[in-house]
């Protein structure tokens, strides 16, 4: 009887191999049908394309996927599956435009199939370290899931009376010495100009998971969270912008024009972010350079040429994310933006 780890490993390998071959076979068959119609319903052309797809999948499986088991898997998948599929879609547009027969714009395939299996593989890679049964060791209810930044601000009474927490002999590191209930130096001026306030310590807690650890009551199940299920949500949200970009490429006015080339090229470049691990610091700059900035430029150009083929929400998202990245990464380090008195 195989162990649970072996069963999980076999399951993941089978799912990843299916994600590799299914998009290639389906799109190549669709391309073969297109060639069959363009060539005057020539069956020979159809079977040549089908044979080429079988030969490609077989050679990739025997020479690359199975013996080498290239790591990272995401990079191998992008090169062996996503790139050929996008190339076939571009070739389909070119074949139809050159022949003057606009038969198939491949509207649903890029979004529903190619990118679905891309998300599928991304989910497998993210969930691979987790258990499939029982509680996950990374459950946010059991382990703190994010750093806690604590900022302490001490406020002293204007009369100079120290707070009991301010240290031995009623003195702090940055405060003047207090004698006979009055403050010396500048503290006395403050006492004459401001009303008396109670000494206190103000604490600000910033945490991505600032919530109680245990819950009770009948509706306690609504507070349950599991990192494994959130992986599915995060993966789909991570790819939605790329999905929308590829959907635009399927619009007939775009698909049968030269704009299909930059759209698919930029969409493929954005998929390279998959190579970076989810919590790697490089992911932010890669998202700016490979997705948000080029997507904003191409979307503005597409709207200017073809009208609103994509919702305005997406270029606005790309613009805001790009501006936020530039501001918080570079501009805040400039001297003119480092004055605390501004904000």
TrEMBL record:
InterPro entries cross-referenced by the UniProt entry: Uncharacterised_FAM23-like_TM (IPR020394)
Transmembrane regions: 9-32, 44-68, 75-93, 105-124, 256-276, 320-337
Annotated spans, Disordered: 157-194
Ranges annotated as biased composition (Polar residues): 183-194
Keyword terms of this UniProt record: Membrane, Transmembrane, Transmembrane helix
Protein name: Transmembrane protein 236
Species the sequence originates in: Amphilophus citrinellus
């Amino acid at each position: 009887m195989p162990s649970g780890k072996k069963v999980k490993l076999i399951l993941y390998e089978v799912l990843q191999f299916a994600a590799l071959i299914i998009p290639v076979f389906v799109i190549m068959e669709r391309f073969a049908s297109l060639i069959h119609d363009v060539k005057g319903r020539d069956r020979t052309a159809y079977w040549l394309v089908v044979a080429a797809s079988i030969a490609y999948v077989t050679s990739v499986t025997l020479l690359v996927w199975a013996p080498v088991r290239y790591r990272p898997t995401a990079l191998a998948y992008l090169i062996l599956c996503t790139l050929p599929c996008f190339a076939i879609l571009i070739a389909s547009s070119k074949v139809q435009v050159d022949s003057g027969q606009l038969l198939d714009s491949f509207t649903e395939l890029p979004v529903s199939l190619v990118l679905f299996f891309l998300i599928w593989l991304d989910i497998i890679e993210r969930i691979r370290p987790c258990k499939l049964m029982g509680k996950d060791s990374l459950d946010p209810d059991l382990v703190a899931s994010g750093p806690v930044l604590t900022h302490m601000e001490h406020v002293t009474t204007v009369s100079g009376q120290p707070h009991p927490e301010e240290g031995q002999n009623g003195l702090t590191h940055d405060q003047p010495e207090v004698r006979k209930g009055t403050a010396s130096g500048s503290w006395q001026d403050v006492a004459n100009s401001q009303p008396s306030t109670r000494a206190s310590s103000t604490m600000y807690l910033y945490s991505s998971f600032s919530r109680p650890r245990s819950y009770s009551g009948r509706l306690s199940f609504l507070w349950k969270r599991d990192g494994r299920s959130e992986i599915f949500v995060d993966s789909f949200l991570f790819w939605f912008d790329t999905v929308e970009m590829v959907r635009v490429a399927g619009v007939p006015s775009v698909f049968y024009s030269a704009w299909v080339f930059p759209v698919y090229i930029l969409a493929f470049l954005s998929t390279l972010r998959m190579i970076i691990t989810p919590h790697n610091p490089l992911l932010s700059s890669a998202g700016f350079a490979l997705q948000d900035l080029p997507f904003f430029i191409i979307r503005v150009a597409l709207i200017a040429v073809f009208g609103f083929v994509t919702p305005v929400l997406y270029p606005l998202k790309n613009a805001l994310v790009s501006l936020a990245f530039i501001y918080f990464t570079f501009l805040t380090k400039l001297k003119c933006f480092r004055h605390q008195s501004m904000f």
